[in-house]
Write a structure and sequence with these properties.
Oligomer: single chain
Number of strands: 16
CATH class of the largest domain: Alpha Beta
CATH topology of the largest domain: Aminopeptidase
CATH architecture of the largest domain: 3-Layer(aba) Sandwich
Distance between the termini: 8 Å
Bound molecules: zinc ion
InterPro entries: Amidohydrolase, Bact_exopeptidase_dim_dom, Peptidase_M20, Peptidase_M20_dimer
Largest sheet: 8 strands, mixed
Number of helices: 10
Protein name: Peptidase M20
Shape: elongated
Cofactor: Mn(2+)
Pfam families: M20_dimer, Peptidase_M20
Number of domains: 2
GO molecular function, one term: hydrolase activity
Strand order of the largest sheet: 1-2-4-3-5-16-6-15
Order of helices and strands: HHHEEEHEHEEEEEHEEEHEEHEHEH
Helix content: 25-40%
CATH superfamily of the largest domain: Zn peptidases
């Protein structure tokens, strides 16, 4: 490419920050990103992108050629009351960009502008995906259903990252964020008098046995080298001291990195819940559901990203796995790519609060580096 993406991004840094502050002041919750997506769409149209709408989501294409690279940002905020005292504090009570999606949208908008300014140098297509509802809404699934990945050869996404020092681009091979699911179970016994247990099928000891047995999935079934979590987080049954209840309800969550471990956890959960109930002559109704698959970076794409960062002098490093989950995982199930992070932690500036905290903030001075990396990824991939 005949230009330096880093200096181009630096040149429009003030604009990127201004966009981020504007989005920050007017946060919108999942699937309500009307204002944000309108602003994004207006800019993209002005810069010559062809636009497809998927609800409040946007698929925007520029360039032509055999290969297509997709870059994704998420736009939704959280139901959090902001506690920062900054000029760009959220103007909407009870809503806040506490995860940094305002920064993601602004960085990708910056990249969109630079890519459009150099579209004559593009040797393929760049697709920008501005998605709604990352926070528990699986907006990625809606975008994929809306055709976001059609013809796409590779995809990259960025998340600003509290656990990395400001300005470092975090790149990890393979499993990065956890897969998550939840379960609900009802153990159906036979109620009766607390003094006559022999005439009942008491669901309480059955539930107790089940809770303990579920813990053996991680301690006895999962290979100790691997990671998994099973947590029973709710248990309800009974009303008073002398009545054995009819049933006990339980709820909980499970986490894992490798899909095989997720399958193992789900299979053992079903066997344990069903098996223990049956051993005692009780019934068990239960459902075990996936929430988000693990985010697994393609090692080749992660390597490609490292090479790009290297070439343009962008500081990068490894990033630790996290038990958090991301719906970017759905794109990575279909297309090779990598979910990258941009460090925004800066003690000197007091930017030390974790994602989803009412005092979460990002070090705005490094956002142009995310934009530069996005532009560089696009042009390098399409060489
Ligand atoms: Zn979040
Ligand atoms: Zn997020």
């Amino acid at each position: 490419m005949g230009f330096d993406p880093v200096s181009e991004a630096k040149r429009i840094e003030n604009e990127i920050i201004a966009w981020r502050r504007d989005f920050h002041m007017y946060p919108e919750l999942k699937y309500e990103e009307e204002r944000t997506s309108r602003i994004v769409e207006e800019h993209l149209r002005e810069w010559g992108y062809s636009i497809r709408r998927v609800g409040t989501g946007i698929i925007a294409d520029i360039g032509e050629g055999e290969k297509t690279i997709a870059l994704r940002a998420d736009m939704d905020a959280l139901p959090v009351q902001e506690e920062n005292d900054v000029p760009y504090k959220s103007r909407i009570p009870g809503k806040m960009h506490a995860c940094g999606h305002d920064a993601h949208t602004a960085m990708l908008l910056g990249a969109a502008r630079i890519i459009a300014e150099h579209k004559d140098e593009l040797r393929g297509r760049v697709r920008l995906i501005f998605q709604p509802a990352e926070e528990g809404g699986n907006g990625a699934v809606k975008m994929i259903e809306g055709g976001a990945l059609e013809g796409v050869d590779a995809i990259f996404g960025f998340h600003v990252w509290h656990e990395l020092p400001s300005g470092i681009i975090g790149i990890r091979d393979g499993p990065f964020l956890a897969g998550a699911g939840f379960f609900e179970a009802k153990i159906q016994g036979k109620g009766g008098h607390g003094a006559s247990p022999h005439e009942t099928i008491d669901p309480i000891p059955i539930a107790a046995e089940t809770v303990l047995a579920l813990q053996t999935i991680v301690s006895r079934n999962v290979n100790p080298i691997e990671t998994g979590v099973v947590s029973v987080t709710a248990i309800h049954g009974g009303t008073t001291f002398n009545v054995i209840p009819e049933e006990v309800e339980m709820k909980g969550t499970f986490r894992y990195y490798r899909p095989e471990i997720g399958e193992l956890i789900k299979r053992r959960m079903a066997e344990i819940i069903d098996g223990i109930a049956r051993t005692h002559g009780a019934g068990a109704e239960f459902s075990i559901n996936d929430l988000v698959p693990p985010t697994i970076n393609d090692p080749k794409m992660a390597d490609f990203a490292r090479g790009v960062a290297e070439k343009y002098g962008l500081r990068h490093g490894d990033v630790a796995m996290s038990m958090g989950a991301e719906d970017f995982a759905y794109y990575l199930q279909k297309v090779p790519g990598a979910f990258l992070t941009l460090g925004i932690y800066n003690e000197e500036k007091g930017i030390v609060y974790p994602h989803h905290h009412p005092k979460f903030d990002v070090d705005e001075d490094v956002l142009y580096l995310g934009t530069a990396m996005e532009v560089a990824l696009a042009f390098e991939f399409l060489r």
